[in-house]
Protein: LacI family transcriptional regulator
Organism: Streptosporangium becharense
Amino acid sequence: MRRPARIQDVAAAAGVSVTTVSNVLNRPERVNARTVERVRSVIADLDYVPHPGAVGLRAVHARSIGLVLPDIANSFYARIAKGAADAAYRQGYALSLCHSDDDPAREQEYLSMLVEQRASGAVVVPLSADPGRLERLRRRGVPLVLADRTRATEEGCSVSVDDVAGGTLAVRHLLEGGARSVLVVNGTRGIRQCADRYQGARQAARRLRGVTLEQIVAERMTVECGTEAVRRLETLPDAVFCTNDFLAVGVCRGLAERGADVPGDVRVVGYGDLDVAGLAALTTIRQPVEELGSAAIELLLDEVEAGADHAHEARVFAPSLVVRETA
Amino acid sequence: MRRPARIQDVAAAAGVSVTTVSNVLNRPERVNARTVERVRSVIADLDYVPHPGAVGLRAVHARSIGLVLPDIANSFYARIAKGAADAAYRQGYALSLCHSDDDPAREQEYLSMLVEQRASGAVVVPLSADPGRLERLRRRGVPLVLADRTRATEEGCSVSVDDVAGGTLAVRHLLEGGARSVLVVNGTRGIRQCADRYQGARQAARRLRGVTLEQIVAERMTVECGTEAVRRLETLPDAVFCTNDFLAVGVCRGLAERGADVPGDVRVVGYGDLDVAGLAALTTIRQPVEELGSAAIELLLDEVEAGADHAHEARVFAPSLVVRETA
């Protein structure tokens, strides 16, 4: 078996000093990019593993970011994680997955863990809107970016999708197609995204005379509740805007039960562009979810690395309309 | 502003010694569970953050596990991640998300990073079957559990689902329903899971006289390719077994195009029990995916913590049949 490579071997093979190799390992920002690349390539070729002493505590810790999410099995959050993982990888940071499982106590434990482990920072999709808890993290020196939420830029960075604009896009498309009575099948008022999407729908409806906009609040945002909403209607509207794709699939089923053709008799738009939207040929609103994750990491690392030069930013992404067959 | 709490304050408030608090932070397995709980609760109440020196390098590092996956936005892997995150949380370990994005070079960089950072161990859903690379990790002292793969127990632990049994379950159900000609719509041979599911299908078919089993290999495992497979059939079989749910949704569409009733004329079974299976009312095979993730972490931590007492294990999970409307 070959003798394990030492730092001197790496330096010799890369044609640099031992100090430069050490800097590549610990403070790559001080070394020019080409040299970093060459040294890393030699490290890979020689299968060199630094001695624990060679990579200092600071260096290892400084290169880890926490990603705190309510549910990694939910495709919306999984896509945020993908965007975040890609961006963290590109910048040479490890990403610690903190899956709070919709449990505020667990979320809090993860936040404490990130402080204890001196993480470089955290991207958080918060469960509760308790700003005090998150502030505490920032006071402890762990910079924090909120994802899928907006916040005042005095408090820090955030990334979100403009759901008001999404609601407007959806209903404007229905009105341009000739609809004059529009039903919104929505989730409960407590969900900020639902309230925003409905507000956007109202803004679009107000711009045109003679348009009626009604709302039904579904108990849950599922296929079954969408179908149930249609069963309870006395008269059918010209068009339905559902604030997620599952509701929209259910609404299409309910309309089929009542013998109504989609889009001939009733036009339907969903929200989210989930897998099911493609399968059901739904016209829907797409959110740039992976971009949300990668932008969160970029803003965070700007705060971590630029220090005093960093300016907080509330980055808001625009959704887009995806036209398929239902409207 | 209140003076930050010190370890002495925690000890006093919890009624234990400073050593016990330190043990709770670094070696909680040596402290009884009630005391751990009480001390942690005081730590939370006092908002105590240990000094970096109080949590040793070993302790911080020893409590991190790498999770290496091809694609976190794929719901199968996202559910593995959920199971793994839950198990790591229960045992007090951080989980480092290593999303290789289907790129072998990136997977390799992540593996090197885990070695450099002295991770406690890693759970890997490997992209390639290059055992040398993974072996190297293990030789470097990073224990490794393979997920969604089997391996000889001399080499280490693995967790997987018995896909041969899954194929048998699917086709046995079709035969019990009276089918005598069964078509398998499969992915390419190179995919181990596809080969296993087909092998299981053949085993079920061989047990009954007069059964014909044919196979079509779809270019990709998508809805479109499933529909296309049906379009090219000269005669329709009694039943179709698709080795994933997207193919099965496509096959149902193709059958509808040809005026065949499902399940009246042709019975269809899918595989995976993805979201789309519920929406399309597919009869399908369910895999215990989250259990795969949590079992991988448990086996890994047994190896990390039990040391010489650990025995490698190839844990194989049984899939189950979910009967809905298509068969």
In short: Residues 52-62 of chain B have pLDDT under 50 and may be disordered. The first helix of chain B runs from residue 7 to 14.
